[in-house]
Amino acid sequence: MVVGLGAGYLSYLFSRAKPTSRAGRYSRKLLSFSSLVIGLAALLLWFGGLSSIAGSSTIGFEVYIVAVLLLISLGMMLRDRLTLRMALRNFTRRKTNMALVIAGLMIGTAMISGSLVTGDTLTELFTRGAYFGYGHADEVVYARNSTTFGFQGSAYQYFGYNVYQSLSTGLSNYPSAGPDVVGVTPEIIETVSIYDSNKGIVQAGSALIGSFSNASRALGDFHSTSGSVIPSTFNDTEAVLNDKAARDLNATIGDTVTVYSAQRFTAQHLNFTVVGIAVSDERGSFTQGDDVFVTLNSAQQFTGHPNSVNYIAITNIGGLRGAIQYSRTVALAANQTLDSIYSTTQSTINSTSIGCKTDISTVVTPPAIPCAFTEKKLSVDNATDGAKSLSQFFLILSSFAILAGIVLILNIFIMLAEERKSEMGMARAVGMRRSQLTRLFLFEGSLYSAGASIVGVLVGIGVAYAILYAIGNIFSAFIPSLNESLVLSSFTISPESLFAAFTAGVLITYVTILLTSWRISKLNIIRAIRNIPEPPRGERTYTLLLVAGFAMALAGVVVFQASFAAKSTMEALVGPSLIIFGAGLVLSRFLRNRYAFTLSGFALLVQWAVPSLSFDNPLVSNYSFGPEVFIVGGIIMVVASVLVVMYNTDVPLKMLRFVLRKRRTLTAIFKIALSYPENKRFRTAATVAMFALVLFTVSAVAGIQAELNASISQSAKDQSGGYDIATNTAPIANLTSSVMADATLSNKVSAVIPFTTILLQEAHDSSTSQDFPLTQLVGADPSALGADNFFTTNSFKMLSLATGFGSATEVWNAVRSNESYVVWSVSFAGNGHPNPGDDLVLAARPAGNPVLKSVRVLGVLRGLFDGIIGVRGLLKDSFNVDSGTLGLVNVAKGLDPVNVANLLKKDFIQLGMQTIVIEVTIEQGQRIFLSFFGLFEGYLALGLVVGVAGVGIISIRSVVERRNEIGILRALGFRKRMVLLAFLVESSYIALLGIIIGVSLGVDLAYAFTAQPNSGLSFVIPWTQIIEISVASYALAMLSVLGSARKASKIPPAEALRYTE
Amino acid sequence: MVEAQSVWKVYQTGTLKVEALRGLDFKVRKGEMVAVMGPSGCGKTTLLNCLSGLDDITKGMVAIEGVDLASMSDDQKSGFRARRMGFIFQAYNLLPVLSAQENVELPLLLAGVSEAEARKEALSALKMVGLEEWRLHKPMELSGGQQQRVTIARALVNKPAIVWGDEPTGNLDSENSAEIVKLLRSLNRDYGLTFVIVTHDSHIAQETDRIVSMRNGQIEKETAAGTKS
User: What interface predicted TM-score (ipTM) does this complex get?
Assistant: First the structure.
């Protein structure tokens, strides 16, 4: 009340005050802050409550801020029409200039827009696989089989048909979920090998799917490639293949296919006539693999489980995509129904009573009874998360280009200000206020900002399409079923993404222009009119820098101190950088700027460019580490390098002078050309930094890609453990004797190492209390002879060993001799694993009864699969498992493992043998990974546009700025070619500095990548690529300069001398 | 030294044709100091630009030291300017990014003189105009008079056959103007340098050997300096 009355009284006083009085002056002063006050009030309003009403999303906030900025700008424009008119005229003053400025400003928005639209498209691409993979099976009911599992298809336990009937009835009567359910479909799904007798081709790891003909009502129809419906009323000797299986088998309608079980060791097989080939749509694709659809009766006969099923699909209302919103409710109802059918079982770990999970947010640790899982929803969610992560990664990669774009905006507006310096001085002299000058630039900047953001959003769509095209190329090169057109058909643009990119672009540009305008408005009228340079900074400025330096150093200490508790790499490394930078500011009070900033720049460079002091610093080895560390590190290194170089430009100049001492005309050209960058230090530093930032990222990615590429063969060898082929079969007790007895394979196989296998319910790490659900435990024979002994022949590399063990051999010897010792294997894609020395509790239900076994992890290796390796005795004695599905095979010297793998598949089709040629598969996976690096590199190279635009704009402005000086040079005897050369040399100097700094730092980062412990990489400099990148960047920069330089050289000297802007 | 016969210079600005020089004849003897005077827009600067080869003429002939400028290519003209001419402009027209010494060195470097030699000559020229102490200063750090002295040093450093001055004292106060004129005159007398100076200032004109008065792109009359026009 008191504040309100006070404010009211003050308003009254101010409104009545004479303009020349003190109150009048204060009133005007306050009024000039009104935009700021409104902006702050709007922010307070948002955080004070509006966000909870409007939703606290980032996009909501962006929209709100842009709307507020728009309203404030409109308000300012209406209040100050003269300034608006001047801004509009400045905006349209030079059309080419306007186009160039917009081109430069739009890059940041284009990168954001490109990243977000890529996210939309990848979400569509990835989720389409998830939607089609499960089709209308919105929730699925099964119980996983612990002793049988395949490479692709999971093995499920069989249960009575009555379970399906009870579930169907129970669900339809369930009050909360009944109305959401369209149908419940009983099925049999089993991993099989298919043999097309007409074509003689075997396809292992396929899925046999048996269902009633009326399943189409809930799960949808099969469709042929022409779009027609394939009748699902086929008989027990007929089958429908999906197009993927047909392609792999080269099968056509009318072929006879023989199906063998991959889950049971049996000679039983069934023949089917192919009556249809279904496209892989929501019905024709199960987990996107090779599928053969048969009647439920045939499947029951084939598997030997009459009146049983092993899989129930529940279909919700809402259609293919809308149904998952009901998944939670329906799955909960299904699980409660299933719990009522089965008696509850004991938890293996903590002996609590459990049935089907009431929390269905996860599919892990399924109990022994069939339960409902929301796998489709999870798959869609995972796909969305994956797409978002990739999109986020693109956005992170963009950050350098966006930052370079911000520097470009700064540069452009400072140049515009320099160009208009004298007219601004005149405007101020005739009475224009400083705030009006700020507004003049702000209005003009707003127009640029809006124009550039619109163009940027549209360019971003093109960028996203190019990314998708590249992804399509990558996928189709490795995955035949995923062709380019299929990928491109996923191209999706959501209005939200476009709007988010637009608002982000407007905000970044607007804020940058606001700060620049404020800085520009602080000009000295006389110096502006007479175009006199700013005097050197006074003592007061350096005292302020001293205080700022101390504050920064103190902040650095605090940040570094905080890193110990937060275990954050970012804080641990940025803290010292702040201290160093602060020290530089402090030193500038006492030393010449050159010494102070060279020293601090050099120290920062050493801190970040020496890997053992930064990225590979032992202090941060156990700290959290994200890509943001590389971003911040990169920016600091670039800034430090630019500081060092810009304060020591005379060094390269002296060197050049020495080199050119015999070429006198060139000396004159170089003297002129290099004097400008030296005199326009900020402009030059900003342009060099732009170039360096972009080149840094491109060459770092190129370096890392080259290192990974060079390590592929070795890495594949290391991960193969020295074996050629991995096999997966129905559980078998002695694979070795079976393979060795095969006449076709005689002299072709040199070693066979069978493993007994079990799928653990979970492995519980007693040391860290971490759970590893659905972990595979495999056991090898410790006393196998010669080449067949896994423990003595494998060459897997240990990532880490338990204390007391000095080598992998010592670990394997210990595991061989003690059932309670194991080694943890982590695959290329796997991440989490226990630490060596940790004790694990292994939990399984081999025969329905819970069994627990304690073991100790002696080592962690990088291998083929995620799981645990022990001895056969561990599986036999603890879990009563004496057969297995996994085998490792070595082929005879000089033979191609691919041919031997095909023979194995064919000869052991009764075992449903699937084979993996280890090195080929690992290499292929790594090459896909590497192809993405190429894509990232290309995406980053888009940032070059910023650098090139920067050099081009500076050059064009320089020609205008120096028209008179060109006249002087021509009068003094400079030839046309010399003027052209002077401009090219000047731009070359800037571009080359940026290229050299960027490439050197990029290579340094690539080196840091290899220096990390266990990186398994050796340092490689991709010279060809780096030369290509550098030459292309340089050539583009020169191309952008050439036009203006030629124009400069052609200006008639008399006209140039007459010219005043 | 300089001979111009029936010189025409026509500027075409859109549909507008401006005849800046209209059949003008003009001669300058070696070692002569000539002032060109006349009202604004009469074609003084255009005449200077055309005579010095900075601008092309539309019709007629200009010869310097017996060489017809029309027979020279642009590069040859540039080379000729670097070796044989010096320029002094009203707005000084120094290169702002170079120091006084570097500005003076520039014509020598263009003429192919070694850097060390150029530095020596530049210092000597600066000494001649009394600015040796200011050699490391950039133009913006010098006063108007000092800047014009640097321009004069630059114009003289390559020992030109002729020096062209376009309002050399236009931006200076009377005291500085007088000093500059004195300097130019002494250089003319002591070194026999030829000067053609475009000026509005009758005091400067009176210091020269001959005054050429222009009107509407033509020479109205020529008088010996010191006589009343």
Answer: 0.79
